[in-house]
Amino acid sequence: MTMANTGPPQKRRKADVPHHVTMDTKPASPFLSMFETFRTELDEHHDRRERCMKASKDITAASKKIQQYWDAIAKLYAGISRDLQGLDSYRYNRQITGGNQEFMEALTFQHYLETQELISYDEAVKRLAQLGGEGGAVLLTPSDYILGVFDMVGELMRFGITAIATGGQLPTSKADPDVQMADADAEDSAPKLEVEDRDVLTDLRNLRIHLEALDASTDGAFGRDISKKMGVMQVCVQKVENALYGLIVRGSERPKGWVPDLSTGPREEIEGY
């Protein structure tokens, strides 16, 4: 006699499913392609961001020796200029701002040594735009221009104090006699201001007056950057003043080539987030 199977029913294995029985498959989600697009855009965003940050650090290093590395700086800017067009120029501004500021510091200092004038914002924009190459002009924001001028004060301090130590006087720009003659021959009877010689300390003091007049307290990140650099700028000007006072009052007591401490404390780096 055959015993009945009283155990629990056994599950049918997949291999036991007849070939003519088909499994219903769910259609692909309509959101899948959308998220794949988002993933691609995010990957491109992070790639551009990393390129800008790397180029900014390289530009910062190369700007330290502007004459020797001018071609290197132009090549670096040309390599990222396509990533900094249109809205992306503002989107990645915080990633490139450090390099732009260091470049502006070097460019402004070079322009001052050649002309004893502060390069204008419009001229600085043109100079940077020329480095973009075929990818288009790289945007120089007014904030990067101003922060670069702040940094340039430190270079002027070193230039002035070194001149005092080696030559016993500050570099001075002589007044142009042709300009004075033209003013004297002018028909305008209004009183004329006499054109006087200018030295580095005079220019530093003028810069300090104008930079201290900036009110960026309501401008978020720019205001914070200004506050970080303002104290360093003021200390730099004071060091040149103290060096000149020391030369006049106690110059004969100091050995030839004496140079005061040029350190201004740890420098605040303005980098991207």
Low-confidence stretches: 179-187, 189-195, 268-273
Q: How many H/I helical runs?
A: 9
Main beta sheet: 2 strands, antiparallel
The tally of domains stands at 1
CATH topology: Methane Monooxygenase Hydroxylase, Chain G, domain 1
> Which value, in Å, is the CA radius of gyration?
32 Å
Q: What percent of residues are in strands? A: under 5%
Mean pLDDT: 79
Q: Helix- and strand-based class? A: mainly alpha
Task: Assign the CATH class.
Answer: Mainly Alpha
Organism: Venturia inaequalis (Apple scab fungus)
Main location: cytoplasm
InterPro entries: Translin_C, Translin_fam, Translin_N, Translin_sf
Family: Belongs to the translin family.
Task: Give an overview in words.
- This protein has 273 residues and is mainly α.
- It is built from nine helices and two strands.
- It has a single domain, classed as Up-down Bundle (Methane Monooxygenase Hydroxylase, Chain G, domain 1), CATH 1.20.58.
- The chain is 58% helix and 1% strand.
- Strands 1-2 form a two-stranded antiparallel ribbon.
- The N and C termini lie far apart (84 Å).
Give the key terms.
disordered C terminus; mainly alpha; two-stranded antiparallel ribbon; 58% helix; elongated; Methane Monooxygenase Hydroxylase, Chain G, domain 1; sequence-specific DNA binding
